[in-house]
Amino acid sequence: MKLTVQNKLSGLILFMMMLFCSNVSAQDFTATGTVVDSEKEPLIGASVSVVGGKVGAITDIDGNFTIQCKQGDMLEISYVGYNNRKVQAGKGLNIVMEQDAKTLDEVTVVGVG
């Protein structure tokens, strides 16, 4: 009888260790970086989101962002008048956005008075 209890206890401990290991491998990661234009000027209010996820962030006045994601996730950066960029999440990213001339030609300003 004692052998059966030890087997069950060993099995339970092994199962709990496997659950713990899977949680460790899927821990959150904090990606940080700066979004700038081709002239190295910060882009204020650029959208940074995890591809296929629901998490997003906006760049601050210096173009900096911080976002929670998983290690190895892809981030998509978008800003009006610029081509979208996809980069792998990391720390200290420096993302240079390229202008989209086609988009700039399509912008229409409407005034309502």
From TrEMBL:
Keyword Transferase part of the UniProt annotation: no
Signal peptide: 1-26
Keywords assigned: Carboxypeptidase, Hydrolase, Protease, Signal
GO MF annotations in UniProt: carboxypeptidase activity
Domain of life: Bacteria
Key word Hydrolase present: yes
Protein name: Carboxypeptidase-like regulatory domain-containing protein
